């Protein structure tokens, strides 16, 4: 039996590659004749570069940048010399996982480090730059990135402002006099599956800032800053970020870069699945095993897994889902090609125990899947 194992990561517990390896090991334990193909996937957040690198054979570029709190940290990106394309994952330089829970405060964090990665990519010849914006620690609307590339932001007293979230509301002037002309010719692409607007009840601050350390008062201030900055961006570029789907992605990076660099926002899931040629790969297998850390209502809302399931349905390939937390059973029942769905948790346990033993639990689930698959005629 040909089995395609194509999961997303289990956030904070196991990378997509780790999930693939553990599942394969478990399946082969009880179904040794199975032929398992591994295709670790990502949704634009952590682990995206590894998924893409496996397909494109791109070069890894490592440099020292600044983390969200302006501390030195090593980060990397992918570069495809023959196509002059750089692929940059914001989480590498500006990610929430670079900070401890106590350090997370998107009033004072910045995307500046991601800008350093972009600057390096341009230096070595990139003409197209794809930025995936999942897993960020910031709510600065991309002014950190822009500052690293030569933009300067001033208050009404003509004092230059540090590029952090709490300063958005203070910005009175955007200065692009120091931006290199070459940057204006670069094709910028923002890859995200977030469709939230720049500001408002469904905007970057109200929906995402709390998980980045903002309290109620900070969320209101950040939203006011995004509203104020949107008006300035509209005046500067003749583009209103609020009118762009996904402008709230990455703490407003989508909207900020759309206005400052004419960046295009695309679906990260569709882009990654296309890069991996998944629609064709699925047809070469008799079953698909996929999953992520939590399967809930967001899973079906145009995210990576939902698009993958649609491809499998089109190819008439049955699907098995494994996850850490399984919710929305009623929605699962409506997915015609899902023949199995289960959590890896096989008994009551604490979150710490689950996180510590995730790989073992996934392997154990693989053992069960192997037993089941060995009895199926597909």
From TrEMBL:
- Which Pfam families does the UniProt entry name for this protein? Gly_kinase
What's the domain of life for this entry?
Bacteria
EC number(s)?
2.7.1.31
Keywords, comma-separated and alphabetical: Kinase, Transferase
Record's Gene3D superfamilies? Glycerate kinase, domain 1 (3.40.50.10350), Glycerate kinase, domain 2 (3.90.1510.10)
Q: What class of enzyme is it?
A: transferase
Molecular functions (GO terms): glycerate kinase activity
Report the SUPFAM superfamilies cross-referenced here: Glycerate kinase I (SSF110738)
InterPro entries cross-referenced by the UniProt entry:
Glyc_kinase_flavodox-like_fold, Glycerate_kinase, Glycerate_kinase_RE-like, Glycerate_kinase_sf
Q: Which family does it belong to?
A: Belongs to the glycerate kinase type-1 family.
| Protein name according to UniProt | Glycerate 3-kinase
